[in-house]
Each structure stands twice: as C-alpha cells, then as structure tokens.
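Following up on my earlier thread - several people asked me to post the actual chain instead of describing it. Fair enough. Here it is, all 192 residues.
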Amino acid sequence: MACKALIFDLDGTIWDSYPCYGAALECVSEYKRGNTIELLRSGENVMTLASNAKIGKGELLKLCKSKVSELTLFPGVLEGLQQLRARDVPLAVATNLPGWFVEPFLNHFGMEQVFAASVFNARKPSPVGLKRVMAELRVSGSNVCFVGDSESDSQAAISAGVVFGWAAYGYSGKTPACDHVRISQFSDVLRL
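Reply from S.P.:
Thanks for posting it. Predicted structure:
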C-alpha cells in the first residue's frame, strides 16, 4: 500500500495521555487515585471528566501542563514521524480535542512543525474533520490513511473514503468493525 498522506489521531495513537490526564484531574477533584484512568479507559474523555468536576478550561490546561511528564509518546513515534517527513509524506492530525488543549502538548514534544495540517474538534465519527484535513493537504480518496485507535476513528475514516489504520497498541482493545490495516506498533506506519 502506498499512502500519499497520513492523518493521525493523538490520544491512544501518538501519545499515551491517560496517566497525565489522570494525575491532573486527581489533583483537585473528587476522583480517587487511579479511578480517573479507569474512567478514561471505559470511554470517558478528559473534557467531560473535567466539566463534571467543575474544572474550567484554564485550570485543566494548567493542571495537565503541570503533569506533562506523565504524557509519553508511544514507542517509535518520533523516529517514525521523522522518517515519514524525510520521505516527504504529508502528515496531519485530526482529533476531537480542542486546539487550545492539544497545541501545548504538540509543542512540548517539538511536533508543532511536523504536521502540515491539523484539525481540532474534529467531531469524529463524523468525516467532516478528516475531509477538512484532506482539503488542506490537497489529497483525497483511498491513497490517504487515517491512523486511530477507536471505533469512532474507524467510522470517520470509512465515511471519509480513506483507509483506516487501527492502532492496536492504543486504547481500544476491541478491534473496530473495519480495520483496513492493523498497526501493532507505531513503526508499522512506515510500511503504509
């Protein structure tokens, strides 16, 4: 398979954010140590958990930045992205997280210039965010691969008419209904 562009989800695909989010929320809320990570694994998202605990945007960002050392890239991510860039493969991000929240973490890892296009608040499983990224990259169709770890990522890819690469190493232990390509470790994207 020769993909002309790769689009990535972030949480559960590029980085392991649950330890960071869990440690941040447990600093000031009713969440018990370890309980927050279990809630995240069960499908809750960090924005909803923060809202439920009455933690505002600014406070959440401040808390997560204070725990950024708990946010780790999955093995092989930096090296893989560098190799893809060296091959001139257009790279992009499509995440349901808001930009004000994600951009500081991209900057923390020096990735602000890695991705040629980014769509935040992508509203997956809707294909709208993926289509917007593809328009920005000026690519379309089955020569584009969206790499993500969840069923909503899979549905967005199918609806957008792109290949879905399931990040099996990510958060969703359940194989999505449609996983065109199984990615067992990040370095597998180099074969796309």
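The mean pLDDT is 93. That should answer part of your original question.
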